[in-house]
Write a structure and sequence with these properties.
7 strands; binds NADP nicotinamide-adenine-dinucleotide phosphate
Length: 245
């Protein structure tokens, strides 16, 4: 896909990984529908950085746990930009919990934000996608989807669902829309943890270090330009998914 002049909706685009993905596309001339949930100030700042990079951005808020929010968000992005070419499903929550202590509330919230919302965003994106042009969906998964462990159980199941959804959606609405996923490894410490958390993980990563949001941005740009690639899950995790169970 030629990126210049295209429009992308990035969920969770105000902060951290989503922000890096939005800026990387903007630097290639993509205009950005910048979704955020609670990070209104950060969304304004990221939109300003995108404009400073020579592109256009519109912060759009939505609570993706709410029913109907996904289709409404696609409508607002289309209203603002007149077209949508790329959807990046990055917003998610990451809650600890194993078989003994996963609450029904945590289960429902993670499934709503991490899996249900990306599906209905993809559905609305595909339904409203302008005829005669190609589209791209990139879902942000996690290497954990391929090596489920005892912790972060519900989160891991939502990401396994994202992988299955990526492969399902790659079959149709092809050939109009390509659908791929990125499975990151240790990139940024989760809320409440610091870099020591990432350093401890490095021992079990074949490349012996954590990655950066920029590594994911490079993967996104590859998937955007790789016109013969669909249904792919690109591991960007230093080989962490290869660890022994
Ligand atoms: N960090 C890592 O190393 C890592 C590793 C593997 C996979 N991943 C995946 O990469 C993606 C980004 O990770 P991250 O660490 O940058 O995430 P993060 O810092 O936890 O940010 C989560 C994002 O999701 C949005 N969000 C959460 N709940 C929402 C809701 N109810 N409605 C709307 N938006 C909501 C937040 O928006 P607001 O702040 O605006 O509310 C925020 O932008 C996620 O899919 C994550 O699972 C990350």
């Amino acid at each position: 896909m030629e990126l210049q002049g295209k429009v992308a909706l990035i969920t969770g685009g105000a902060v951290r990984i989503g922000r890096a993905l939005a800026l990387a596309l903007a630097e290639r001339g993509v205009r950005i529908a910048l979704h955020y949930g609670r990070s209104a100030d950060a969304a304004k700042e990221t939109a300003a950085a995108i404009r400073a990079a020579g592109s256009d951005a519109a912060p759009l808020s939505a609570d993706l746990a709410e029913s109907g929010a996904a289709a409404d968000l696609i409508d607002r992005a289309l209203e603002r930009f007149g077209r949508l070419d790329i959807l990046v499903n990055s917003a998610a929550i990451f809650l600890p919990g194993g078989v003994g202590d996963t609450s029904e509330g945590d289960w429902d919230r993670q499934f709503a934000i991490n899996l249900k919302s990306p599906f209905f965003l993809a559905q609305a994106f595909a339904r409203r996608h302008q005829p005669g042009s190609s589209g791209l969906i990139v879902n942000i998964a996690d290497w954990r989807a391929f090596r489920p462990g005892p912790d972060y159980l519900a989160y891991t199941l939502t990401k396994a669902g994202i992988v299955a959804m990526t492969q399902s959606l790659a079959a149709a609405p092809a050939p109009r829309i390509r659908v791929n996923a990125i499975a990151p490894g240790a990139i940024l410490p989760p809320p409440g943890k610091d870099d020591v958390y990432l350093q401890r993980l490095a021992d079990r990563i074949p490349l012996r270090r954590s990655g950066s949001p920029d590594d994911l941005a490079k993967g996104l740009l590859y998937l955007a330009e790789a016109d013969f690639v669909t249904g792919e899950v690109l591991f960007i995790d230093g080989g962490e998914h290869l660890q022994q169970l």
